[in-house]
Design goal:
The complex is a heterodimer.
Chain A (H helix, E strand, L loop, with lengths): L15 H32 L29 H13 L8 E6 L8 H10 L10 E8 L2 E8 L19 E3 L5 E3 L9 H5 L6 E2 L14 H4 L21 E2 L5 H4 L6 H5 L5 E5 L6 H6 L4 E2 L11 E4 L1
Chain B lengths: L2 H28 L14 H26 L5 H25 L8 H4 L6 H34 L2 H11 L7 H34 L11 H25 L4 H34 L5 H11 L3 H22 L3 H27 L24 H24 L15
Classes of the chains: A alpha+beta, B mainly alpha.
Bound molecules: iron/sulfur cluster (2 copies).
The site of one iron/sulfur cluster has 15 residues of chain A, from helix 4.
């Protein structure tokens, strides 16, 4: 900056213009330093991946096969998925690619999955992981109903994770997008960043607030992420962002997500898409497979058969 | 100020502080239970208040910087006032957003494990540097007067002079020059910083591709302009209230602030026209329906009466027709206060509609609705924050040399 000014007579030291130039140069140096540090921080943040789960051999689960039942290709899909889950867990976490397939033609709109999920994860008012959207199509006499359960899509390019200011939410190697309740400060930024409205905020309420006594079932801790979460005394997950996690705590123990096992229409499938013999891999490759809001570029890992 | 006015103001402040204080205590003990935001509309009044106060802070800071860099000494009185306003309103902003956090006790995590990919982390870090910078600036700007107070002032001011001046006896000419020099350095550093974060708050919203209403590149510019408009408006009001009583100076100050405010306001209106007319022109698209709700929905009066009427037309007329201290002050007050409606009309409509239609009725729960009006409790907390800010401002005005030396103590008897 200083050398671009034409060299006329040097003003005497201490004159206002020298003074100004000095101030300007010092400010520029301060800003330059800050900008460099900022750029380094940004580049570093974009390059590091967040996560604290064990990987490799430490993540392999050796679960016993179902000994008393023989499972073949034509067995009940739940049994097939159960067996496939065992196979998937025998691999390290980074080789699993969880995928959910929802057959909307089979969904009867009973909301059993919604409620099973509420019960499994002990969800309070204001928090729902898997609502079922009901749409009425057409007008009388040509009317139809369409049901679309909406879990978290566990997007391959999740818009919700990079926004978190404190690295409290990330995508695991197996594709599940998780929230660390201990870390989350409850700013709600990720809630606004999800185009599917799949994140909700735990505002610390109970269904039996305002009644003579809080019911014990509401005070029981939730088991999400394989830990015990006690909401009493404003403990996490109160105040946090909460979302579907494909029942990670169940998966780790070899159980299918609660919404899959509770679905009365056998409409929800779940499994490891990296395994070509897995039912979900096969279903997701059908021509009638759709993903929600594909134009958003989020790469959802929930596929709908329409 | 007349005595009965003063009493009235005290009563109003006390009422606000007590009523608001109850709200704040409830926030600490009961959490979010009494708030009306929920899981779909997660941000409400407090987030709007936050961007509103941040805007005022950035705007008044930029004004004070311009005065220090380009202005003459006689404007410096407004410069200090603006700087102090910027500090107070930033504190109010941070308080607001702190109340909005789900886990208030974990706020330090933004410093201990920041994710610099997140706009929000950037904002917090920038604010922190900015606050530090402003405090140092204020110290540098007032140090000479503080040093003088050690000998000349009485009571609390003398103590404050002793504590803060960091020098025995008045500063000599060289020390004063050094203070002015470093003040200039920091002011020059602060200008890009304030531009960056007031635009950055806009970017915090506009970088979210999930929210069509916010996801526009104009948003950071709009926030920057809004910051200047509301900040300059508030400083104009404060300057008219506490400004020099000498006619010539008053005229100069008023001319400066009035013209700046008018120009900024007109520029802001042009930007807003772009922001509304482009998505609405052909009458289709998701933003169209949201903007229609802003303009002609249930809260049409927030936009038309409060924002357009009281926040734009009346101030523009006041500024264009009359160059008096009271008219500039009144215009400034109107602009500054009604700007809150602009903030509300950015935050809430952005969350009003799901992309995935049908969610509105998928699950019945009072927190899972796409509808939001701030609850009384939320207003209570906001009123508490305003009362707190007013008290801090008053204390600062009484106890810090916000009026430069030459006018003496008489300047403080507003
Ligand atoms: S659906 Fe929403 S919450 Fe789930 S991964 Fe995608 S963006 Fe994140
Ligand atoms: S709510 Fe929690 S997880 Fe979401 S962005 Fe904020 S801190 Fe991160």
């Amino acid at each position: 900056m200083s050398d671009s000014s034409p060299r006329v007579e040097e003003p005497p030291a201490g004159s206002p213009s020298v003074e100004n130039r000095r101030a300007f140069l010092k400010a520029a140096a301060l800003l330059g330093g800050a900008a460099t540090a900022g750029t380094a921080a940004l580049v570093d943040a974009k390059r590091t991946t967040i996560g604290n789960e064990p990987t490799g051999a430490a993540s392999v689960r050796d679960l016993p096969p179902l000994a008393s039942i023989s499972i073949e290709r034509r067995s009940d899909p739940l049994l097939c998925m159960q067996e496939a889950l065992r196979r998937a867990l025998a691999k390290p976490v980074e080789e699993r690619r969880w995928l959910m397939v929802i057959d909307t033609r089979k969904c009867v709109g009973c909301h059993a999955c919604t409620i099973a999920c509420v019960a499994e994860n002990r969800l309070p008012p204001g928090v729902v992981y898997r609502p079922v959207v009901t749409e009425e199509i057409g007008s009388f006499p040509n009317v139809a109903l369409r049901f679309t359960p909406r879990p978290c899509m566990h997007c391959d390019e999740p818009p919700c994770t990079p926004v978190c200011p404190v690295r409290a939410t990330w995508k695991r190697p197996d594709g599940i997008v998780v929230v660390d309740y201990y870390k989350c400060i409850g700013c709600g930024y990720c809630v606004t960043a999800c185009p599917y409205n799949a994140r909700t905020r735990d505002l610390g309420e109970h269904y039996t607030d305002g009644t003579p006594a809080l019911q014990p079932y509401e005070e029981r801790p939730s088991l999400e992420y394989g830990k015990l979460w006690d909401r009493r005394g404003h403990g996490s997950p109160v105040g946090n962002a909460r979302k579907c996690h494909f029942c990670l705590h169940r998966l780790e123990e070899g159980m299918l997500p609660e919404c899959v096992t509770s679905c009365i229409g056998r409409a929800t499938y779940f499994g490891d898409a990296a395994d070509p013999d897995n039912l979900v891999a096969e279903l997701a490759a059908r021509p009638n497979a759709r993903r929600l809001l594909e134009e958003k570029g989020t790469g959802p890992r929930v596929v709908y058969l329409v | 100020m007349r005595v009965h006015w003063r009493i009235l103001l005290w009563i109003a402040w006390l009422a606000a502080a007590v009523w608001g204080g109850f709200g704040f205590v409830e926030r600490l003990s009961g959490g979010h239970a009494a708030a009306n935001y929920g899981s779909y509309i997660v941000w409400g009044l407090w987030v709007s208040a936050y961007i509103y106060f941040v805007g005022i802070s950035a705007g008044s800071f930029l004004l004070s910087s311009l005065i220090y860099v380009f202005g003459e000494r006689r404007f410096e009185r407004v410069g200090r006032l603006a700087l102090f306003t910027a500090i107070i309103s930033l504190c109010m902003a941070l308080f607001s957003i702190w109340c909005d956090l789900g886990q208030m006790s974990r706020v330090h995590r933004i410093f201990t494990s920041p994710n610099f990919g997140s706009m929000m982390a950037w904002m917090v870090w920038l604010y922190s540097f900015y606050l530090l910078l402003m405090l140092i600036e204020l110290w540098l700007a007032t140090r000479a007067d503080l040093a003088r107070w050690q000998a000349s002032a009485r009571g609390a001011r003398r103590v404050i002079g002793r504590l803060l001046a960091c020098s025995r006896g008045p500063l000599d000419a060289r020390q004063e020059r050094r203070c002015r020099h470093w003040l200039k350095v920091l002011v020059l550093t602060g200008i890009p910083l304030a531009i960056a974060f007031s635009g950055g708050v806009g970017a915090l919203f506009s970088t979210l591709s999930a929210r069509a209403f916010w996801h526009t590149p104009l948003m950071p510019i709009l926030f920057l302009t809004g910051a200047l408009v509301s900040g300059v408006g508030l400083v104009a009001f404060l300057a008219a209230l506490f400004a020099p009583r000498r006619p010539a100076e008053q005229r100069d100050t008023v001319l400066l602030l009035g013209r700046a405010l008018l120009a900024l306001l007109i520029f802001d209106v042009i930007l807003e026209w772009a922001e509304f007319s482009v998505p609405m022109w052909y009458g289709v698209g998701p933003e169209y329906s949201l903007l229609m709700r802003v303009l002609f929905g249930e809260f049409w009066w927030v936009f038309w009466v409060l924002h357009v009427g009281l926040g734009c037309i009346v101030p523009i007329l006041l500024l264009a027709l009359r160059w008096r201290a009271w008219s500039v002050g009144l215009a400034g007050l109107l602009v500054a206060v009604t700007f809150m409606t602009v903030r509300l009309n950015i935050v809430i409509p952005g969350l009003l509609d799901p992309h995935f239609q049908g969610l509105q009725t998928a699950f019945t729960d009072h927190r899972l609705v796409f509808w939001y009006v701030p609850s009384l409790f939320e207003w209570q907390v906001t009123v508490f924050i305003v009362a707190l800010g007013a008290a801090l401002f008053y204390l600062g005005f009484r106890l810090l040399p916000l009026a430069p030396h030459d006018e003496g103590a008489a300047g403080c008897q507003a």
